[in-house]
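Reviewer 2 asked us to include a model.

Predict the structure of this chain.
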Amino acid sequence: MMTANPILLQKKYARVIECFAKQQGLSLDEALGLFYHSEVYRLMRDGVSDMHCMSDLYLAEKLRLEYTEKFLENRQ
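Predicted model (structure tokens):
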């Protein structure tokens, strides 16, 4: 497991949240809430698979996929 500098990680979170909000047409508050309750956030925070090293766009897409899957699971 690798750890990132906490300040750099906070900036990374902000960029991913902003990218996700723009992609999905969400407010920053909505995107923030979704991000901090996501598996993507947990993996980044815990340094799993160097998720914090992935591009902002990649992480925003992983976030979108996570919530798409959760939405589809809840519809069944």
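The chain has four helices and no strands. The helical segments are 6-24, 28-36, 39-46, 56-75. We have added this to the supplementary material.
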